[in-house]
Amino acid sequence: MISIPKTQFDNLALVRQGKVRDIFDTGESLLMVTTDRLSAFDVVLPDIIPDKGKVLNQISVFWFKRMEDIVKNHIITTNVNEYPEEFKPYSDALDKRSMLVQKAEPLTIECIVRGYITGSGWSSYQKEGHVCGITLPKGLKESDKLEQPLFTPSTKAEIGDHDINISFDESAKIIGLEMAEKLKNLSLDLYNKGAALALSKGIIIADTKFEFGMLDGEIILIDEILTPDSSRFWPLSEYEPGRSQNSFDKQSVRDWLTESGWDKTPPGPKLPQELIDRTSNTYKEIYKRLTGNDV
Ligand SMILES: Nc1ncnc2c1ncn2[C@@H]1O[C@H](COP(=O)(O)OP(=O)(O)OP(=O)(O)O)[C@@H](O)[C@H]1O
Ligand SMILES: [Mg+2]
């Protein structure tokens, strides 16, 4: 488990605490730490899921390496022995769940790719017949595979706000047409390669979000990539269009929370130990399936 109270890093700035990740500014670079926190229905639960952070971090590392022929990424090193001096006392806690990354200038759109119709895409298709301005054929069922993966960008919301889906033209107004086209092509290439590999391991990556940044005038991939936090992972063996699909990583927790009668406002309830263990194992199973390795 991770226990890195920020007071232990007195000399370092915790620049951002997301629902799951803590980010420290080392001056030159950023240290991204993936904790074992779990969020469900957008609420961070009081329990931690052992090794979940290691799984998510290692999944990103796995993909970043495999995508280097498509685009460079922000990783400097994942070897704790190469981290700045001030992190040395915490090497054990940081091992496998962190990466030292280059500080980039984040591009201000989120690059979402949808291979299947679900979530906000399904809602908008039902209401208006299109997703982010892209008209889709009539008669699609919930969770259907799309003929072609779609690039459906969104704005980056401030903390607490929700991202807003926008059309490609709107994204071009924000970052320029040439840049929007580049990000679209990169995003589709990344998704196609990742989704194909995952599918061959029995995992459907229904949709996902990429983030890009600029470094020395070049586009690089930042943040996390093709993890169950930034994507929808569905078990292929249970896939059935015409209904919503089970989430590979969090379904048991979601089901339990729904059953519990919790009103989905913070604080979330404590989970039974058995469910915590099962969820931890599910994350490890996803990692094993994808990479063939143990965490
Ligand atoms: N290499 C990088 N350089 C600069 N900023 C980065 C880099 N990698 C990631 N970021 C930024 O760090 C932030 C990551 O935040 P994080 O994912 O922890 O929280 P969040 O996205 O605000 O919330 P959530 O908990 O919902 O994910 C994002 O704003 C992302 O753009
Ligand atoms: Mg995030």
What does this structure look like?
- The chain has 295 residues and is of the alpha+beta class.
- It has two domains: 1-103, Phosphorylase Kinase, domain 1 (2-Layer Sandwich), CATH 3.30.200; 105-238, D-amino Acid Aminotransferase, Chain A, domain 1.
- The chain is built from seven helices and 16 strands.
- It has helices at 52-66, 91-94, 119-128, 168-175, 177-200, 251-260, 273-291; strands spanning 13-17, 21-25, 29-34, 37-40, 43-48, 75-77, 98-102, 105-106, 109-116, 130-131, 134-135, 145-151, 154-155, 203-215, 218-222, 231-235.
- The strands form four sheets. Strands 8, 9, 12, 13, 14, 15 and 16 form a seven-stranded antiparallel β-sheet that branches.
- A hairpin with a 3-residue loop joins strand 1 and strand 2 (21-25).
- It is globular.
- The relative contact order is 0.16.
- The protein binds adenosine-5'-triphosphate and magnesium ion.
- Adenosine-5'-triphosphate is lined by residues 16, 18-21, 23, 30, 74, 101-104, 106, 159, 211, 213, 222-223.
- Adenosine-5'-triphosphate binds at residues 16, 18-21, 23, 30, 74, 101-104, 106, 159, 211, 213, 222-223.
